[in-house]
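Incident log, structure service

09:12 report received: a user says their structure output differs between two submissions of the same chain.
09:20 pulled the input from the user's history:
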Amino acid sequence: MKLLIHDVVLPLGRTEQDLPRFAGRRLKIAPSQIFTLEVQRRSLDCRRGRPPRWVHAIIIEVPSHLSDQLLKQGRAKKWDPQKIEISSSHSDQSPVVVGTGPAGLFCAWRLVQGGAKPRILERGPEVVTRSKRWHQFIEGGEFDPECNLLFGEGGAGTYSDGKLYTRVQDPRVPEVLQALVDHGAPEEILTDGRPHVGSNLLPSIVKRMRNFLEQQGAQFFFDHRLVDLKVSGDEDSKKISKIIVENDGEKVEWETDSLFLATGHSARDVYRMLAKHQVPMSQKSFQIGVRVEHPQGAIDQMQYGESAGHPQLPPADYSLVSRRSEKDVFSFCMCPGGEILPSTEQKGFMCVNGASRYQRKSPWANSGFVVTVDPDSFGDPGDPLAGIALQEKIEKAAFDAAGGDFSAPALRLMDFLHRRLSTDLPESSYPRKLTPTPFEEIFPATILDPIRIGLADLAGRFRDFGHPDAIITAPESRSSSPVRIDRHPDSFQSEGLAGLYPLGEGAGFAGGILSAALDGMRAAEVWMSKEERISQS
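09:34 re-ran on a clean worker, output below:
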């Protein structure tokens, strides 16, 4: 019998070879009585007031009489991971998946496991071409609305930090991580408490996964954009019959009765197309704010104290919140050893995001700091897309205020807190230009004031947070979707259009790479189960 043991602590200076001794001490048994030991999870505890330490969850085997004793004493749990049963034999089925981000990619992954042969649409190019064109842009070249940080093979996550943690307890999580490892991700993501892959590794992983899916019968169509739907049935029983796809200026109709929509939260044209067909959608709260960048050394010092620089410690991250104002201000998508990047799909609009490579060797650390904006602030309670209009208003103001050339509005953090316009800016990770800009030209006071109060609170609580070379850029406006495409909780289908399966972040049902992948897999499982019942009836 295998047992799961939590909270086995290794101080700095120890290695995992020391785990049997520390596990034996934790369980009050001799290390020699531990027959096998493997790490299930490993996380860094750097809470203030104690030196940093590594905390492990481990899986062990011990003599049967000790197993019974440890279970009875509550020191261990039986290790019995749940497995997912997948319906199969769908070889004659060819549903359409729109989008190759994590929701679409893992939806297709699950579909081919069940025997289906999905057709996968991606409005942007395949990842090699995408990488070349993306790097041309960030080095000063022309902007491409169909090939950017958001659109192209792999979706927005391809050039992100590649964070793979979630609070969702789901037996599919190990499967997702193992699939990524099988296609080139580092094995440590299987055990790290805060796993990440890195923007330099993700493109090749995505390409290998696509090659595998093609070998299983999936078909990929790059530079193909979903532009419209053909709907049949009356007002009370509408269903999809065809979709209209555009490629190189030519529009073609595709027959399908099953459309998995995983287009991400920045495909605003898709939301507007769905609104035209009166597909039920709802306003939802979303987060918006700024991105703050520090020298990585300042964050290491803030988090690790006297242990900063220890060879067993990675570049430090943080998770911070201020409750000083009427709106909580909290960190989002913290990227140690990372860079700030332009993250928009429309010329004339500006927003930023963070990313980092696998090794996280950049001399800077950055994080979003956001507040939650509720629908009552959108301005039009009857328009499900009113939150998008608010995003666009802020993003256009930022683009114009910084000069209209994809320069990022920026200030030194302390100048922002003291309401000063910076006369100069320190060196930054942002690949294009930074422009000193009054943030009052970008945000309404209802958003800007809580952010300023919250960041001032953090600078007062953490000395290194107020580092003189810390900068603030804006806006961080794509952290979550302001729209939910309504769907049935059990069938995953749209509440008003049969055959439409809204997925992932863009549909308002996920927040991050891992949760989006899980959402895509669950939707595919539900679809295959339904198709199996139909074939048996």
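09:41 both user submissions now match this output. Likely a transient worker issue. Closing.
09:42 reviewer note: The chain has a mean pLDDT of 94. The CA atoms of residues 244 and 253 lie 5 Å apart.
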